[in-house]
Amino acid sequence: MPKYEDLSRSLAAFDQDSTLVAAIEMGSEGWLVGALVPGLKRDPRKKLQPDGPALLRQLRRWCEEAAKAGHPIKRICVAYEAGRDGFWLARWLREQEIEAYVIHPTSIPVSREHRRAKSDRLDLALLLRALLGWLRGEVKHCSMAAIPTVEEEDAKRPLREREALTAEVTRLSNRMQSLLMLHGIRKFKVRQKKAEEKLFELKTACGEPLPPATLAQLRRTFAQLRLAQEQIATIDKERHQRLAAAPEAGVHPMIRTLARVYGVGLMTAESQVREVLYRNLRDRRAVARYVGLTGSPDESGKKRREQGLAKAGNGRVRRSLIQLAWRMLRHQPNCALVKWYRARTADGRRDTRKVMIVALARKLLMAFWELVHNGIVPEGMRLHPVKVVG
Q1: How far apart are CA 108 and CA 218, in angstroms?
Q2: Please, what is the angle between helix 284-291 and helix 350-374, to 10°?
Q3: At the topology level of CATH, where does 16-147 sit?
Q4: What percent of the chain has pLDDT over 90?
Q5: Residue 315 neighbours by CB distance under 10 Å
Q6: 168-202 pLDDT, tens digit each
Q7: What does the H/E/C string look like for 21-73?
Q8: Cα(183)–Cα(194) distance, integer angstroms
Q9: How many helices (H) and strands (E) does the chain have?
Q10: Distances in Å between the alpha carbon of 210 and those of 161, 217, 225?
């Protein structure tokens, strides 16, 4: 049986007399580091430059102070909130044989006062309190983020770059359509072939050529659009080459297996695998919770209502799953999951379809998890007869 790492609490025994507990409030200009040092009456705080070696020197200095006070340090635990700095510091500290953790910011309880005091020192105290509770093994005191390897992080870059480029293509296309609309040109398709060459033939609603400044802006925007499309094509080509060159390396077998499903493209398969399906999550609930496809009930006394999706997970995967669920309705009409959706939306109401498509997305995620990990194909789901490599 595989062992799952439960990041909601620490399973190691916590000895407060021999453990140095430190937390870092990270900022762009500097880090505020606080610690609970055995043998010291004070709780030291130190403002440091955002530098790993400086942090390591400070931790060793506190270890020396604890040893002088009669408490030799056997364990050092350091934590900070997940944010812009990512996971490089945690990986570097672990290379220095220091326990390093990254805390989910939303898992730390804060004051519910309308106007609460907030400063780096107060936030640091909250981090230390949350870290201590987690180290003591208190269930759901706070949650730690799984620290990916450099290779796992780097493998996501092409997918996320492509997503940003696709959004840029849409933005540029909308800008050009708006510019043309100012002159009464409505039916010109800016993404058609040779659209840039046809600009000189366009006439405004008054029958005149486009003004020179507008024409120049449109040509520059076309150049940006062409560059973004070329970069998307390059990313897609490199994806096919990676899979063809090493079809059995890393998570490539999972990607190829998922891409066999009718209606799931190669890019969608790679996105689902690299974002969520490769993770060693505990159970089905943990998978849905990571994506944010879980409910958020609001119950107090006699009041009972559902607030909708928690949306606390990976929004990128959640959005793509809901789009994929709509696509499955057309490409997998005989799948048991699609039939389940059809039976519950027979009334034809729009609100019912919107709610149930989210439920279908969650069921699809569970089905894909079983498919790539255990080879279990959902009833009625069509697969390509050969593995899709490119």
Answers
A1: 49
A2: 130
A3: Nucleotidyltransferase; domain 5 (3.30.420)
A4: 56
A5: 11
A6: 999 999 999 999 999 998 888 888 888 888 888 88
A7: EEEEEECCCCEEEEEECCCCCCCCEEEECCCHHHHHHHHHHHHHHHHHCCCCC
A8: 21
A9: 12, 7
A10: 34, 11, 20
216-248 per-position pLDDT tens digit: 999 999 999 999 999 999 999 999 999 889 888
Q: What DSSP string describes 266-309? A: HHHHHHHIIIIITS--SSHHHHHHHHT-SEEEEEETTEEEEEEE
Q: Are strands 99-103 and 75-81 parallel, antiparallel or unpaired?
A: parallel
What confidence score (pLDDT) does residue 5 get?
A: 59
**Number of residues written out for the chain:** 390
pLDDT-flagged residues of the chain (< 50):
1-2, 388-390
- Could you give the 3-state DSSP secondary structure of residue 346? coil
User: Which residues, in sequence order, are CB contacts of 267 under 8 Å at separation 6+?
Assistant: 159, 162, 236, 239
Supply the Cα-derived Rg of the chain in whole angstroms. Answer: 27
Distance of CA 124 to the CA centre of its chain: 25
3-state helix, strand, coil in the chain (%, to 5): 50, 10, 40
Look at strands 31-36 and 19-26 and give their pairing: antiparallel
Beta-bridge partners for 233: none
